[in-house]
Amino acid sequence: MNGMKQIAYFGLSTLFLKVLGFALLPISTRILSQAEFGELNFLVSISAVMSLLLCLGLPELLFKQHISDPQRKRALFRDALILCGFLSCVFIFILFYFIEPFSALLPVPLNTIDIKLLAVNLALSSVLSVLFCYFRYYEMAKQFCVLAILQGAGQTLCTLILLYLGYGVTGVMVSGVISSTLVLLIALSLVINQLGISFKYIAWNITPKNCLFLLSIIVSSLFVYANNGAENWFIAASVGKEKLAQYYVVLQFALMTSFTFEPIRMWWFSRRFNELTQNRTKYIFLCKLSLDIGILLCALMIIVTPHIFSIVLPHNYQLNTWLLPSLIVVVVLRHHSDLLNIGCYTQFNGLFVTVINAISALIALLLLGFLVPKFGVSGAVSALACAQLVKTGLFVAISQKLEYLAFKVKSFVPSWVCFLLIYILSIIDLAQYVLWQLVTFVGFLIVLFYKYKPLISNAIKPFLRIRAHD
């Protein structure tokens, strides 16, 4: 399956899931009280940090490890699946046994049954992540798409039914367990024959060197969470579940921007290490193209999302108008750090990934601890922006030092200028600011058209030939 078809399938699944997620927002914010919705969001925050631990960095290892022998590569997937499944079972047992001490450590009170259901869902999702990596690596985008849509649709349907029956947050947790179990069983049935490689034929494939890489990814992922997720704990502890609910809704609309870029990210991240090895010139071009697309999508979302936000959500979830565009700026910075960091992963077993994430995490935690108690949600957004800016600068500088790639900074300047102008127009009090944003966006499109004119021409030639033939 070629790259465009894969992107289309990934795009379809991502679009479907995110549409379902955002469709649930106006429903859940009206059925649940603001305190209940804040409690649900805090459970999601716990899920985010625990999933980093349970996935063990295995997706990164599976994509990074270049093995020429197809059977040995499949054996690596086999080992990753076994390891993830075993540790997920251990995690459930430990959490169930120590549920009371764990609950006492949380900054807000939560129902213990909700925490237990969350643990089961996390374990199932972690095993599923390995299987989904298999589909991505072996270009089984169609299977990936069908299963992802099945999981999302099933969970959404169960959530709606249980919410209307009055089960509240617990109903949301139950729906996650049901859908994850169903999809896991189907996914296992699709790959079990390919992964059923005897240990007599190929021994355990995860080496101590791999474990060192996994450890660096796990630690680094925790630092990433401190950069993007830890603010939920500070907000909940400092200003309460209600303010957390408001912040979470704004954050979801900002993350909508990241989701629009997800199909390209999923396609690119699964092949970027191979592309770097095979053709560095093509790697640089595809990396620049991906970044420009990411910036363009963020600029579009700055124009669109504030208006959608004000229409679909209750009035008591509205916050300062500058918060949403500012969170989208954080997303743009994250695109840069994600796409321009390859040298930090290819050299020294990913050590510098951990170091950079540790530095930015420390900055984020210090700023959150200082700003959130004083300024609430506004302080959290400011802290995230500062920490992400430092992180992006370090990733770009150190990656270029370790693995130099001939990027031309001036080629990104038009994209940066257009995006920043659209952002500034969104936060200042200017009459007809939307019109000026649209004019700037059209100019942005023209700049990118001339920048990638050969690529665009090659892409539309087949359609022009078909039309001429007809």
TrEMBL record:
Write out the transmembrane intervals.
7-28, 40-63, 75-98, 118-137, 144-167, 173-199, 211-227, 247-268, 289-313, 319-336, 348-371, 377-399, 411-428, 434-452
The name this protein goes by in its record = Oligosaccharide translocase
Keyword Metal-binding assigned: no
One short Pfam family name for this protein?
Polysacc_synt
Q: How does it sit in the membrane?
A: Multi-pass membrane protein
Coiled coil spans: none
Q: Keyword set for this entry?
A: Cell membrane, Membrane, Transmembrane, Transmembrane helix
The cellular location(s) given in this protein's UniProt record come to:
Cell membrane
Q: Where does the UniProt entry say this protein principally localizes?
A: membrane
**What InterPro entries does the record tag this protein with?**
Poly_Biosynth_Transport (IPR050833), Polysacc_synth (IPR002797)
